[in-house]
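R.M. (postdoc): so does anyone remember the format we settled on? I'll just put the structure tokens first.
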């Protein structure tokens, strides 16, 4: 498979929901260290709403489904991370709204818009120990995959590896944004909940491409 169709995107949304459900308590635990402890609850609510839309939607264009999923996520989980994730899906979906399939080029466009949407809405940038420190290297990895004519499976594998490295690298950063910023130097060495959510997002894509389709 070198392109995702509408049914693949529906399945990926459901797969991300499964990942978030499975990691709910872990996200709560991480967020309890430097946040308010509701991250796991927020993400399960957000992706439950997105998954329900994927189940019932008759939309034919993947990008428009992703926009709608983002809108429903914003309503279901109106917290900081819920709003940021919803913004990412809406911005990313809008960037590929008129395409019928998502290949490696469209996926790179989606994640570029997704990441920039979150940076603009959250007023954050790489290096602040946030979800951006996972999503930004993912975006660069996908853009490199396009330049090097890689197929969708290899491109997603590279992006997943970039997400893993981004998450690991972010542990040594000092939090500069949100509630975690109150901890200053004490945040160094700790794993950020938002960055972890970004990694789980990529895990949902990676698992679908490498396991669900085999």
């Amino acid at each position: 498979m070198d392109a995702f169709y509408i049914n693949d995107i529906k399945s990926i949304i459901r797969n991300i929901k499964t990942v978030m459900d499975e990691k709910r308590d872990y996200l709560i635990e991480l967020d309890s260290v430097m946040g308010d402890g509701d991250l796991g609850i927020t993400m399960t609510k957000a992706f439950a709403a997105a998954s329900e839309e994927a189940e019932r939607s008759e939309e034919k264009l993947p990008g428009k489904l992703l926009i709608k999923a983002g809108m429903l996520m914003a309503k279901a989980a109106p917290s900081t991370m819920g709003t940021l994730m919803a913004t990412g899906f809406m911005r990313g979906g809008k960037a590929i709204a008129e395409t019928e399939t998502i290949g490696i080029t469209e996926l790179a466009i989606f994640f570029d818009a997704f990441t920039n949407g979150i940076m603009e809405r959250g007023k954050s940038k790489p290096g602040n120990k946030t979800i951006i420190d996972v999503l930004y290297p993912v975006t660069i990895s996908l853009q490199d995959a396009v330049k090097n004519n890689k197929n969708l499976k290899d491109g997603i594998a590279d992006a997943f590896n970039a997400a893993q490295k981004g998450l690991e690298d972010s542990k040594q950063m000092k939090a500069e944004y949100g509630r975690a910023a109150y901890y200053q130097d004490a945040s160094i060495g700790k794993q950020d909940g938002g960055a972890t959510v970004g990694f789980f997002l990529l895990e949902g894509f990676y698992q679908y491409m490498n396991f669900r389709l085999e």
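R.M.: ...and that's the designed sequence above, right after the tokens. Also worth knowing: Residues 193-212 form the longest helix (20 residues). Residues 6-212 form a domain with the Serine Threonine Protein Phosphatase 5, Tetratricopeptide repeat fold (CATH 1.25.40.340).
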